[in-house]
Amino acid sequence: MQEQADGWQLLFDGKDLSQWRNFKHDGLSDKWVIEDGAIKLASGGGGDILTKARYQDFDLRLDWKIAEGGNSGIFILADETGEHIYSHAPEIQILDNERHPDNKRDTRLAGSLYDMIASPAASHRSAGEWNRVRILHDQGQLTVWQNGVQTVSVKIDGPEWQQLVAASKFADWPGFAANSSGHVGLQDHGDVVWFKNLKIKELKR
After folding, report:
1. CA-CA distance, 142 to 11, in Å (whole number)?
2. Which class for 172: exposed (0-12), middle (13-18), buried (19 or more C-beta within 10 A)?
3. What distance in Å separates the CA atoms of residue 145 and residue 56, rounded to the nearest whole number?
4. Residue 71 in contact with residue 100, Cβ under 8 Å?
5. Rg of the chain (C-alpha set)
């Protein structure tokens, strides 16, 4: 495989979920299933999941699709020292922008850095359509693209970041985004969601 030769690692091969487990658990809920080569959260109550491995500097690619009225998210730099997976981990939002009530704030629309940086309308697609996301984390520089449109470019813990955090729900969350490495996570927000083509490339120095 040329991708493997280029340093890409599959986080899901379409057949098994062996690289994933539930937050703060060794196993994986049976509500996270495989359907047509995709990871599917079949119903709420499956819990948030994360990669067994941790990553520091990386290029992450994946496709996602959300059910009508749905909400989910992609976490990076996650740890398990907080109460929730999102206690310390920045989130790239997944949302049905047209129907979910979280659409009242533009920083909570799909492709946004949740509650901090709003994604452009050109990056949005309707519920039920596949979306392609790229998340690049390189020595604290976080850049995100959704459907080929850049949605985020910010230096974690830089001056702009600190201003964004101060104006967000995370302002008084100790340890938020303090990790230089961590797990990739997928959110159970109680709604059906699908993920496929998950792969990651670690950036070597």
Report:
1. 20
2. exposed
3. 19
4. yes
5. 16
Q: Which residue from 53, 61, 79, 87 is spatially nearest to 143, judged by alpha carbons? A: 61
Closest residue by Cα to residue 94 from 131, 55, 42: 131
> Using an 8 Å Cβ cutoff, are 101 and 70 in contact?
no
For 123-180, what is each residue's pLDDT tens digit? 999 999 999 999 999 999 999 999 999 999 999 999 999 999 999 999 999 999 999 9
Q: How many helices (H) and strands (E) does the chain have?
A: 2, 13
What's the farthest any 2 CA atoms get from each other in the chain? 46
Mapped onto helix, strand or coil, the DSSP state of residue 12 is coil
- Read off the pTM: 0.97
DSSP secondary structure code for residue 203 in this structure = P
For residues 130 and 55, give the distance between their C-alpha atoms in angstroms, rounded to a whole number: 25
- Quick: pLDDT tens for 65-93: 999 999 999 999 999 999 999 999 999 99
Structure token digits, residue 164: 């964004």
Q: Identify the CA nearest to 59 among candidates 155, 158, 134, 148.
A: 134
The rounded distance, in Å, linking the Cα atoms of 188 and 181 is 22
Q: How many CA atoms lie within 13 A of 34 on its CB side?
A: 10
Closest CA to 58 of 189, 199, 191, 157: 199
Instruction: Specify the CATH number of the domain 2-202.
Output: 2.60.120.560
Per-residue tokens: 27: 């196993």
Task: Give me the phi and psi of 181, to 5 degrees please.
Answer: -145, 165
